[in-house]
Amino acid sequence: MTDRQASSERRGSSEQQGSFERRGGSSERRGSFDRRGSADRQGFPPRRGPDRGGRPARPTVDPARQAAYEAIAAVHRDDAYANLVLPAILRDRRLHGRDAAFATELTYGTLRALGTLDAIVATAAGREVERIDPPARDALRLGAYQLLHTRVPAHAAVSSTVDLVRAVAPGAVGFTNAVLREIATKDLDTWIAQVAPSAETDPIGHLALAYSHPQWIIRAFAEALGGDLAETTRLLIEDNERPPVHLCARPGRADAVELADEVGGAPGAFSPYAVYLPGGAPGELAAIGEGRAHVQDEGSQLVANALALAPVEGSDSRWLDLCAGPGGKAGLLGALAAERGATLTAVEVAEHRARLVSQAVRGFPVTVLATDGRTVGKDRDLPEASFDRVLVDAPCTGLGSLRRRPESRWRRQPSDLPPLTRLQRELLSAALRAVRPGGVVGYVTCSPHTVETHVTVTEAARRSGVPVDFVDARPLLPSGMPGLGDGPTVQLWPQRHGTDAMFLALLRRG
Questions:
Q1: DSSP letters of 376-408?
Q2: pLDDT tens for residues 172-227?
Q3: What is the pLDDT of residues 283-342, one digit of tens each?
Q4: In whole angstroms, how far apart are CA 335 and each of 58, 121, 303, 366?
Q5: How far is 157 from 145, CA to CA, in rounded Å?
Q6: What strands lie across the sheet with 274-277, from one edge to the other?
Q7: Do strands 245-249 and 274-277 pair parallel, antiparallel, or not at all (unpaired)?
């Protein structure tokens, strides 16, 4: 699990601040919100004149747009994570309700749509976006998003962005005004038809511009989906939607149906512990503060529960989570272990993440170790052939949770794969050493990339030096779940199951 996954799973989605009316129109690409009323392509305001003292009028920047700009600028300038910086900005600026929701939509929507917005801005500006000064560039992205993805009237989107640029890059005011006026002359579909390559001659390139994903990620998705570009397109559309918040009602502490009534949500479709939260800030819920629930994607719940349900031969009292930070799966496994008289050892190599795990499992029969999971057999607390169930929630590219982490699709590169897959194989090999004969290992990634899933599992099992058999994971998920494939592994999908794209392989040591 990546750091950005950790922080999001810990806090919940900062997008759940409120809601607005979705924009109409035929384009499936549009999935955004109306704050100012219906679109109006006319009536651009003139530049602000001087005040009564002859001084230039001081621009008034809308607080929600200012907050969104600051978050977007931090992401690009400082490699920050939107789910970390935006809540702090909203608190500092005391934005609540619809203003906070509008700022959140602008931030996450702009970051998701970045690839397409940049292509449109570059065409309208007559220059590559890399040649535009960063403050003006980020403001233009924000303005273009409002013009093309929301019901904000065109004159309001242009004038508010010009005001913003007047505050952060005054030398680019005229340029910004001209570029946005050009963008406002066409709707999103017309722009995509202009900037994207033909779907017939370059289908991947077309999808990349139409649905704002890097081409290498689209190819990875298509490969994992058996080359089905129609379903790949549905996945890309789902990636661009605002994701719901899922809660996990901790077994023995909360019932999902009762929790749903308490928070005004709905029980999950598949996980017996899942609750779908309609909106708001999940961290403020009493159930979370009291340790009765935590924020966790339903797919994450399903794969952890499948490991707990897998049949083992002999004893079933010692469980191990080899990559436990930040503690979502450890929290669920710890609760299940408590109900069954088992104990869980939770391993996390990073000290600060180990502290998060300790907080997540408080009150459960869980021992947290701040150590490297690959030290199985060398660490006296991690003896070989000693655990009945072992979870490897391996560090990965996080391509299965792009809808929750808007900047990650632009940060990840194919060059990230070799070191990650090497680490994944080493951790899975350590897990196979740690599990006793007859016990079960669950290998999980939040990525559908075949190199991180099937290739890693196959190679690690082949090199492990211990006899290994695959366990069919499909019967361990709720009956009636569609699209689980031919087994024995399971790949969950946003467009099929409404979850992150979690992969699960179960292996029994012979």
A1: BTTBTTS-TT-EEEEEEE-----GGGTTT-TTH
A2: 999 999 999 999 999 999 999 999 999 999 999 999 999 999 999 999 999 999 99
A3: 889 999 999 999 999 999 999 999 999 999 999 999 999 999 999 999 999 999 999 999
A4: 57, 50, 15, 9
A5: 9
A6: 266-267, 274-277, 245-249, 293-295
A7: antiparallel
Provide the residue count of the chain.
510
**How far apart (Å, rounded) are the C-alpha atoms in residues 459 and 217?**
23
Give the mean pLDDT of the chain.
Answer: 90
Digit-coded pLDDT (tens) for 4-46: 344 443 334 445 444 443 343 334 444 433 333 333 333 333 4
Inter-residue contact 348 to 375 (CB < 8 Å): no
Instruction: Check: CB of residue 82 under 8 Å from CB of residue 14.
Output: yes
Structure token digits, residue 154: 């065109």
The answer to whether 321 and 391 are in contact (CB under 8 A) is yes
Residue 108 pLDDT greater than 90, yes or no: yes
Q: Cis peptide leading into 326, omega within 30 of 0?
A: yes
CA distances, 426 to each of 44, 394, 421 (Å):
60, 10, 9
Q: Which residues contact 5 (CB under 8 A, 6 or more apart)?
A: 398, 401, 404, 405, 446
Q: Which residues contact 19 (CB under 8 A, 6 or more apart)?
A: 33, 101, 279
Report the distance separating Cα 22 and Cα 149, nearest Å: 9
Active site residues: 446
Helix (H) or strand (E) holding 147: helix 134-149
Of 40, 51, 82, nearest to 409 by C-alpha is 82
